[in-house]
């Protein structure tokens, strides 16, 4: 039986009816029309469904919708014109429509949480997103660019 919940997604409060077992991934896509988070493995392995949950990257296929009550959820639709989105375009880091949004969400969280991350930490962080089609070099270049720009902005003049 469905129950009414209020979720905060991309800064907007949404009241919807969800089943207790409904994943956040399905609710975002099917109830809220936010299809940027993708159903890949639906098992926590690929990262295609990554969203930000109170600023931390989270696999939405492993999160129940009711767990998101009283938390801030951000999806790829909420990152329009952010530095990380622009860096992905500039560095040609956008890949297929399936994996890219998850990579951007994860890189955005890295830039916010660990602005001093080095190249080894970047590689380690990206392990939670899987693409077997191509390399990760452009993605690493995009996040590196964002971190460098952040460091310049934060340097006192
Ligand atoms: S769909 Fe969630 S980790 Fe693959
Ligand atoms: S899964 Fe998207 S390019 Fe490989």
Which helices and strands appear, and what pairs or packs with what?
Layout: E1 3-9, E2 12-18, H1 24-31, E3 50-53, E4 56-59, E5 72-74, H2 83-90, H3 100-113, H4 119-125, H5 137-154
Helix pairs in contact: 2-5, 3-5
What is the CATH architecture descriptor of the largest domain? Orthogonal Bundle
**Tally of structural domains:** 2
- What percent strand? 15-25%
User: Strand-and-helix sequence, N→C?
Assistant: EEHEEEHHHH
Rg calculated over all Cα atoms: 16 Å
Shape: globular
Uncertain spans, ≥5 residues at pLDDT below 50? Answer: none
Summary tags:
alpha+beta; Ubiquitin-like (UB roll); DNA polymerase, domain 1; 2 domains; five-stranded mixed sheet; 5 helices; 5 strands; binds FE2/S2 (inorganic) cluster
């Amino acid at each position: 039986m469905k129950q009414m919940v209020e979720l905060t997604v991309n800064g907007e409060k949404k009241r919807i009816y969800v089943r207790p077992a409904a994943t956040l991934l399905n609710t975002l896509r099917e109830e809220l029309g936010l299809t940027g988070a993708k159903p890949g493995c639906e098992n926590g392995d690929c990262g295609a469904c990554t969203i930000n949950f109170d600023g931390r990257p989270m696999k939405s296929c492993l999160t129940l919708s009711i767990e998101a009550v009283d938390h801030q959820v951000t999806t790829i639709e909420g990152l329009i014109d952010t530095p990380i989105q622009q860096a992905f375009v500039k560095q040609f880091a956008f890949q297929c429509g399936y994996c890219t949004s998850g990579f951007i969400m994860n890189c955005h969280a890295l830039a916010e949480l660990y602005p001093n991350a080095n190249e080894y930490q970047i590689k380690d962080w990206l392990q939670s997103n899987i693409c077997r089609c191509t390399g990760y070099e452009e993605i690493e270049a995009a996040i590196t660019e964002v971190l460098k720009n952040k460091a310049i902005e934060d340097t006192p003049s």
